[in-house]
Amino acid sequence: MSTDLFALSDEILAGRAEIDQHHPFSPSNQLVEAGDGVAFVESFANVAAFSTTDGLCLVDTGSLFAAPAIHAAVRSWSPDRLASAVYTHGHVDHVFGTAAFEEESATNGWEPARVVAHELVHERFDRYVMTAGYNAVINQRQFRVPGLKWPVDYRRADVTYSDELAWDVGDTRFELRHARGETDDATWVWAPEQKVICPGDLIIWCSPNAGNPQKVQRFARDWAVALRAMAGCDAEVLLPGHGLPVRGADNVRAVLTDTADLLDHIFHHTLDLMNEGATLDAIVHSLVVPSRLADKPYLQPIYDEPEFVVRNVWRLYGGWYDGNPARLKPPADSALAAEVSSLAGGARALAARAHEVAEAGDFRLACQLVEWAVQSDPDDREARAARVEIYQARVQAERSLMARGVYSWAAHESAAAPSGDRHDRADP
After folding, report:
1. What is the pTM of this model?
2. How far apart are CA 394 and CA 186, in angstroms?
3. Is residue 319 assigned to a domain?
C-alpha cells in the first residue's frame, strides 16, 4: 500500500503520529516527488534523483538487493539517462545500485555516467576487500543475516575531491562538502536552486550511528559541526540516507540541530570527564541524555545507542586503555572465568545465579555471570542452556538493532554448539 511519505513525516514531527509507525530501516522502495525535478526513493538506503538538462543525477544508488526496485522506481518517474551519481560515502548499501543504470546505458548506447565521491571512498573499498571475511561475520551478527557474503568488487568513483566540490550536471549545480561523521569519507550534498540537502547517513531518523561497536572509528564532534553547517543553508527539503524525507525549513533545521545537540552532549560529557581523569566505565554509566533530545522521534536509540558513542569518543581521544589497571594486561577470559567459577561453586552455580539476576531485570550482570559459567566449562549443557535463555530474554529487552544482533547471535552460538565447541566463535 502506498504511503504519502512527506505527510507521514509531517505527522510524526508534529506529534500526531508515532515513530513506531514507520521504522527507518523498513524499505518500501517507494518514490515520491520532493520538488520540481527532484524525486526521493525510500529504500534500505535511500536514493535522491535530480532531473537536469544533461540527464539524471542520483545521490546514492542503493544496495545490491534493492537495485532492481530502485531502478524501476526511478524509471517510473523519468526515462532520462543517468548522467552522474554521487556517493555520500562508501557503505555497501549506498553504492551498489549504480550497475543497473550503467547496464541500461550500455544497452541504449548512452554516454556512461560519471561517479563522484570523496577521495577516501577508494581507501574504504580497499579495506573492505582486505577484511571481507571479518565484514561478513560482523554484518551477519549485526543484521542477523546468516550466510551473508561480503562483496569484493566495487564501482569506483571517476572523480574524487578532498574538501569541497562544485559539481555541475547540465544546468544544475550540486555543492559537495566533506564531513567526518559515521564515516571518514562522508559527503553531504546541497542543491541550492532546489533548496534540498542530501546528508547521507549524517541523518538516519534515529540516534546517530556514531558508536557502532563492531565497526571502525566514528567522529561525533565533526558530525555535529557538519550538521550545523547544513542547518545554516536554510534548506526547505531534507532527503536523508535512511528514514523519511523532511519538508519545511523549520522542520529541517530542527532535525539537523537536535541531532547536533545530541552528539555535542555526548561528546562534551565524555571529554569533560576524561579531562578529570574518570575511567571509561564511570563515563559510560553516568551518561544521561536530556529528555528534550531523548524524546525526539528522530533520535530514538533503535539502531545505535548513546553509550556506544561514548566508547567511540574515548577510543578517538583516549586510546584503548579504559582506566582500569586490571584490564591493561588482563588474564585470559577462560582463566578469569575458571577462577570465578571455583569461588562460586562451579559453572552451574554461576548459571543459576545468572538466572536469578536476569529475572530481577539486571541483564548487564546476568550476561557477565553466564559468560563466566560457559567459559569456565564449555561442556556443561545446563550452563549453555542458561546462556541461550538469558540472551534470548535480553534480545527482547533491548531496543537497538546493534545490541539485539549481538545478543541474538550469542544465544544462537550456544543453542547450535555441540558439546565441547567453544561458544565464542561461530561459523559465518
Report:
1. 0.95
2. 34
3. no
